[in-house]
Amino acid sequence: MASSLASKSFIGDPRTNLWSLHPDLQKLSSPAVQIRIHTRNSTKFQIKAAGNTFGNYIRVTTFGESHGGGVGCIIDGCPPRLPLSKDDLQVDLDRRRPGQSRITTPRKETDTCRIDSGVSEGMTTGTPIHVFVPNTDQRGHDYNEMSVAYRPSHADATYDMKYGVRSVQGGGRSSARETIGRVAAGAVAKKILKQLGTEVLAYVSQVHKVVLPEDLVDHENLTIDQVESNIVRCPDPEYAEKMIAAIDVVRVRGDSVGGVVTCIVRNCPRGLGFPVFDKLEADLAKAVMSLPATKGFEFGSGFSGTFMTGSEHNDEFYTDEHGRIRTRTNRSGGIQGGISNGEIINMRVAFKPTSTIGRKQHTVTRDKKETELIARGRHDPCVVPRAVPMVEAMVALVLVDHLMAQHAQCHMFPINPDLQEPLKECPPIDLAKVAI
Question: What's the Enzyme Commission number for this chain (predicted)?
Answer without folding.
Answer: 4.2.3.5
